[in-house]
Amino acid sequence: MSLPKAELHLHIEGTLEPELAFALAARNGVTLPFADTEELRHAYSFSDLQSFLDLYYALMAVLRTEQDFADLADAYLARAAGQGVRHAEIFFDPQAHTARGVEIGTVVEGLSRALERSEERYGISTQLIMCFLRDEPAASALETFEAAGPHLHRISGVGLDSAEVGNPPAKFREVYELAAAAGLRRVAHAGEEGPAEYIREALDVLGVERIDHGLRCLEDQELVARLVREQVPLTLCPLSNVRLRCIDTLADHPLRRMLDAGLLVTVNSDDPAYFGGYVEDNFTALRDALGLDRETLRTLAANSFKAAFLDEPRRRALLAEVAAYEFTD
Ligand SMILES: Nc1ncnc2[nH]cnc12
Ligand SMILES: [Zn+2]
């Protein structure tokens, strides 16, 4: 049995494994520009965020029907269950699908079909977070929010992702105001490739409750002090950071320094099909690279539940499971 944990930074489209991509391509009559899964896997070598995003968006061509989205989410949940995940807050990118002629209702209803059965099947509670693509115009985010209107009862929050540099959080002030008025939770990617200033802007202008990545906060000690004081959760993704060359090697990852500074950090997988591991693989790789002891791993698991948008009884129950967990390896 694995250490119980929440996954708070997971793009469902980033869980599309090569085998499922080819199966969906065959089902939908889509031709992929790769001969087979092995050739596709060879393309998983990235120089930066954009080089990954190019492949990530291209492969989405195979996702067309509600059943495709349900199959994608179910495959993720089955794997997550094997990695100790007890709660998952799942990102999706509606504009990447509507731009291809797939309606937002197809995406949300398809994902929800799998999510609705997740507690019963896998013991994983779930929420959906709708992300806006920050390299698209603000008007497109507003249109997306409007199109999501009939499905908002299935969506817990909004997020901001895609190419960060040159697309500051403030560009999305209006749509975040609408989301807040609709009672949605707010998060945003900031400080992955972009500067520390974007983290401050996400907090001050968008009113976010969590920062996705946030790695570059370390360049601004005043900001670090604020994140510690306000206990703003940071959803770190260590294997992603190495694959997208935000850091050179896992041994260089500042996670331990961040914990020691008092930051509320969590460990997540981002796009596990592309970055070489799901969430527990991230825990294990960090443990091995940084020499983390069991109590530090327990702290990281507890942080994931502290940072989650859970109701208090379930948060308490899951924190109790973490406290009682007995390591066997
Ligand atoms: N790591 C990441 N950063 C920004 N946008 C993303 N979309 C999917 N993964 C992402
Ligand atoms: Zn991400």
UniProtKB/TrEMBL annotation:
Single GO molecular function: adenine deaminase activity
Adenosine deaminase domain sequence ranges: 4-324
Reactions catalysed, as given in the entry: adenine + H2O + H(+) = hypoxanthine + NH4(+)
Residues at the catalytic site: 192
Enzyme class at the top of the EC tree: hydrolase
Coiled-coil boundaries: none
Keywords recorded for this protein, A-Z: Hydrolase, Metal-binding, Nucleotide metabolism, Zinc
EC number: 3.5.4.2
Residues where Zn(2+) binds: 9, 11, 189, 270
InterPro entries the UniProt entry points to: A_deaminase_dom, ADE, Ado/ade_deaminase, Metal_Hydrolase
Site note Important for catalytic activity, residues: 213
One example of a Gene Ontology biological process annotation: nucleotide metabolic process
Cofactor: how bound: Binds 1 zinc ion per subunit.
Family of the protein in this entry: Belongs to the metallo-dependent hydrolases superfamily. Adenosine and AMP deaminases family. Adenine deaminase type 2 subfamily.
Function: Catalyzes the hydrolytic deamination of adenine to hypoxanthine. Plays an important role in the purine salvage pathway and in nitrogen catabolism.
Protein name (record): Adenine deaminase
